[in-house]
Write a structure and sequence with these properties.
The chain is mainly alpha-helical. The chain has one domain. The protein contains 6 helices and no strands. α2 crosses α6. The termini are far apart.
C-alpha cells in the first residue's frame, strides 16, 4: 500500500513540474532571439556558443555545458544572466533580462531543458541567395 502511495506522489510531483515548466518556443526563444542571437546566433558564435536552438543551448560552448539539466543554480546560463558584474553579465549591452524572462529560463532548466520537436536552427544569413555568386 505504501509503495503505491509513494509512486502516486512521484507521478503527481512530476506532473506539477511539467505544468509549471516554461514553454521554450513561446517564452524563451523570443527572448534569446531579441537579446542573444546577435552574438550567439547563426552568423556569429562568440565563445563558441550558439543559442538559436534548445539543442545548441544544451550542447554548450566549446564542450562546456552552460545548462545543468534540472539544476538552474549550477547552470552557467543562469549565472551569466543574473550577474551584477558587468564583465560577466549577459547580455553585455543594454538592460539586463527582466525578472519574468529569467524565471522562465530557470523553469525551463528545472524541467530538464526539453528540446521541442522539429525545432530548426536559424538559417545562416550568408547562405541566402542574395549572397551567392551567380
Amino acid at each position: 500500500m505504501n509503495r503505491r502511495i509513494i509512486i502516486a506522489l512521484c507521478y503527481w510531483a512530476y506532473a506539477v513540474v511539467m505544468v509549471h515548466a516554461a514553454d521554450y518556443l513561446r517564452e524563451i526563444k523570443p527572448v534569446l532571439k531579441a537579446r542573444c542571437y546577435a552574438c550567439h546566433g547563426a552568423l556569429k558564435q562568440k565563445a563558441g556558443l550558439r543559442v538559436d536552438t534548445a539543442a545548441n543551448i544544451r550542447k554548450g560552448a566549446k564542450g562546456d555545458a552552460i545548462v545543468v539539466l534540472g539544476k538552474p543554480t549550477n547552470s552557467e546560463l543562469i549565472a551569466r544572466i543574473t550577474s551584477d558584474d558587468m564583465e560577466e553579465r549577459m547580455p553585455p549591452e543594454g538592460a539586463p533580462l527582466k525578472a519574468n524572462e529569467i524565471a522562465a529560463i530557470r523553469e525551463w532548466i528545472v524541467a530538464g531543458a526539453p528540446i521541442p520537436e522539429n525545432e530548426t536552427a536559424e538559417a545562416d544569413p550568408l547562405k541566402h541567395w542574395a549572397f551567392q555568386v551567380p
